[in-house]
Each structure stands twice: as structure tokens, then as C-alpha cells.
């Protein structure tokens, strides 16, 4: 008996010794995966991502067991480098986009290049070097073992069945995890709308493999059966038609000029901030007090950031979460605000001081229905701040262009102006006007507030300039913040926990301490949405939760047009509303649900609340809405649906004549 136990121990030790480097590769791969999650989604010691990562590494490495040890070592080093690159690149990407890389994003590499210093300064972090450490350790150990002839000694223990045993172990571990996955997990793995959730629950390696398979073997476009298209769209059209209510704002702006200001990185919290030199955004505050101010407004962008916001504002559809509509889906048919206004006789233009091909705007703005897109080549680059032409110069030159257009064309105009200066990293401080930020001086928050204050001054110059030229008569200004400014959580905590009397910061033990928890962090990312007109007394603050998809229905009612395919609601006609985000998060007046950890938070207490039937139903409804939006975009359903109707000599009574 003792001999058998001794023999078993000896065989076990020999197998461990024989696979020393493979074991080190597995340990280094897992440690990198854990490190990535700790530095992005937060450290969670779940067993499933660890076991899944072990199984993926074993399955990948099993093919090397055919090779002699010296050649195996090269294989292991190469894969250790690959694992380091996967983790390091995802870490950098997450720093800027709060998501993880996808093979579907390869078409967007050019956009990263065009952002230049803005991207590099915002994502580069010395922390990325940590992901090179496992490979360095592996190389050092292999070199030292080589000097002791370790690999020559264990070569004799190599067997032909090693690969099959390893493959079986890897498959068994993977099957163990697969057996625990819920239908929701499987759905998320297939759709990959919520990449942080997948990485947190299953590890970076299994996510990367699944993403590769999805983007390599899954057809990008599917032609749906006629009855399925009818099912997807007819209910949406009926719902939108039934929701139409003649409120007090119906047609109040019909025929008026509209200036849409895409206000870069503008967050609402800064509107309430007073510095030694006064408010950060005095003019924006003035517009908010005189116009319709939606103080509970959330952008709904995905990885396409600004371009996603433009898309959603103009179409009332959610952006896709595995790419950017502006790059991958420019040839679809969309019902948009510019198209609807064009059918009402409007001249539609868009204006931006950046390269026209950035975010593929040269192409996509035509798809959205703009007659003309003025880009960098149409402006004199006489003053540069941050990523390009300063907002002051951009607004000044844009007024001249608008004036010239109006002099030659009496049609009402829709002009969308996309600002640029107030963009991360907010470091051209010497070009901003003096603005005392007190104790914040020298911090990232201070730089943002100085940049925002400059943007506010530029906005005032634009509105004042329009008025001086008579361009505000019979006109409306619509302003929205496109997305948050990517301010670190630690900067918020310092900002809200400064003790002015003592010149120190409150600690978590102090009763005055403000915790930037999950709920507060989400609320801080709200941006302003304002509708203002010189000719109307609109002064009203609306606190109904509102998303970017709700902008088009709200505005279109005021201009007398209607989009039957809209996903949002006219906020002036509803009391309750749920804001849906592309990653399946959602928020209403009471609850914030975050899909990354499947938890519900009370907006009143910020505490986790128990799941109940109504919340489960809400999740199902949210997933259905996202599916509708994705179907419309991916499968070009609007064009297809209109084609089917034309073939069958049918019309949709609810679609107004303004639909093209």
C-alpha cells in the first residue's frame, strides 16, 4: 500500500515537474486577468472567470504538448506576450471608453489616430507596464532552468497522450462553467452588448475568444422574413402613434430656424459650481433659466461617444454596442430630424472645425439628411486649442457662413454646430481666459472647469453674434451635452469633500463625507439639454428622467413633424420615463439598474434593493427595446419595411407625408 501511494506521489510530482512552465503560464495568465479586472471593473474574486481562464489557457496550450520542451518554451513565451497584450490593450481602452476591445472595432483604429494627443494623454498609464511582468518572470525562469539542464532531464518523461489529457481537462473545466450559465448569461455572451459584464463574469480570455468567433463567423446582416419585420416594426409604429398627444408645445416652433449645439463634454453638475471668480457656466445657466431646461438628462452613447450622440439625437435610435453606426452602418435608411425638416422646406447644414472624415462624418451626415457639411477644410484655422479650431473662432466663422446662406436662401434653416475645444485632456490652460478655481488649482478637475468656463464664454459669443446679425429672430436654440468628461472618481471625491474652513479633505469617517457611489457616479454624468428661444417665454425646469432618444420626439412635436420609428418619447407628454443605455443599464425616477453586476439601486437611499417581479419585467422590456433598435440598424428594417409595403401596395396611415 505504501509503495502504491509512493508511486502515485512520484508520478504526480513528475507530471507537475514536466509541466512547470505550463503551470507558470496559467498562473501568470490568471494573475493578469485578475489585475485587469481589479484596474477596470473592480476586484472580484469570482471562481467562474478564474476557472474559465484556466480552461482557455489549457486548451490553447494543449497543442504545444506535441513539441519537445525547448520548443514548447518558445510557444509559452509567445502566448504569454499575447496574454499581456490582450490585458494591456484592454486596460488602456477601458481607461477611455469604459468598455473592452472588440474585433468589430478594427474599422475604428483610424479614429484613434486622428484623436492624437487627446487619446494618448487620456488613456496612457504606466499601469500598463504591469502586464509585461508575467512574461519577464517567465523568461527569467526559463533561462535559469536551461542553465541547470532542467529541460533535458524532464524530456524523458514526455508522453504521447499529454495533449489529449490536457485538452480533456480544459474541456471539462469549460463544461463545468458552461453548466452554471443562466439563459441571461448565454444571451449576453451571444449579443455582447455588455462587455464589462462578460469580462467580470467569465474573464478576458473567454470574452476575447467569444468576440472573435462572433465577429468572424456571425453574418453582419440578416434578411428577416416579412412577418418578422412586420412584427418588429408594426408594434413600434402603433405604440408611437397612440402616444401622440396634443400638448401645449405642439407646433410652437413650426417654420422657425433651429440651431442645434452639440456641446462637447458638458456635464450638468458644473452648472451649480461657484468658484472665487463666480459661476463656471454663467451664460449656460442663463439659457437654462430662460428656456426649457431638462435637468435629468442622460446621453446614451456607446463606444462611438460623440458620433453615437449625434446619431441618437437625430434618429431616436440607440447606438449599437459592438461598433459605431457612423462607421459600420452608413448605408442604412434612417428617419431623421434633418430629413423631416427638409420635407418641410428647410435647408439643413452641419458644421464642425475638425477633419470631415473623423467619425466618418463626411459620409454619415449625408445619410442623416444634411445638405451640406462644413468641416475643417471650410474654416480658416486661425486659433487652435486642444484638438483643433477653437470654439471662439469656430462660432465666429460659422455665424458668417449662416448669414451668407440666409442672404441667398429664404428657406428656414437647421444648423447643427459641433463644438471641439472642451475635450479631454483640457490642458491648453494658457489659451483659456483667467478663471480662479481656488483650492482646485493644478488638479484635473480645475482644468476641466477652466475649459468649461471658456466653452461657456464661446457659447455666449455665438448667441450674442447671432442676435447682432438678426439671426435669432424667429429662431430656436437646442443645446445638448454629448457625453461626460471622463473625470476620475477620485477627482469627484476630492471635489465634494473639501473642508473650506480647515483647508483639508473630509475622510470617510466624517459625517460630512460625500461618497461617490454607484448611483451618484451615474448621476454626475448627466449633461444639459436646453430648448431656448428669444421669441418665447419658455422658462421651465423639467425633472422627468430623459435620454438622448427622447430628444427627437420632444423637438419634433414642437416643429410639427413625426417619426413613427422613434424609440423615445415626447417628454412634455409623459410623467414617468425610463432611460435605457446600450449596455442594458437603465434608470428611472426611482431605480438605477446596472447590468455589469445585475443589481438594482434605490435613487433615494443609494442602497441595493431586492429584485422583484416588476423589476424583472422592466429588464425584459429594456432588452426588447434594445433588440428593436439593433434590428432596425443591423437589418436596415426601415428600408426593407417600406419596400415590403410598396410591393403589397400598402401605406402606413400613421406616417406623415414628411417621411422620405
Gist of the model:
This protein is an alpha/beta fold and 660 residues long. The protein contains 25 helices and 21 strands.
Overview of this protein structure:
The protein is of the alpha/beta class. Strand 17 (579-580) and strand 18 (586-587) form a beta hairpin. The longest helix has 29 residues, at 69-97. It starts with a helix and ends in a 13-residue tail after the last helix. The model is unreliable at 115-120 and 651-660 (pLDDT under 50).
Task: Name the features.
660 residues; alpha/beta; 25 helices; globular; disordered C terminus
Radius of gyration: 28 Å
Widest sheet: strand ordering: 7-6-10-1-11-14-4-15
Largest sheet: 8 strands, mixed
- Percent helix, as a range, is 40-55%
The low-pLDDT segments are 115-120, 651-660
Quaternary structure: single chain
Mean pLDDT: 87
**Count of DSSP-assigned helices:** 25
Please report the total strand number as a whole number. Answer: 21
How much of the residues is beta strand, in percent? 5-15%
Distance between the termini: 86 Å
Shape: globular
Strand pairing plus helix content: what structural class?
A: alpha/beta
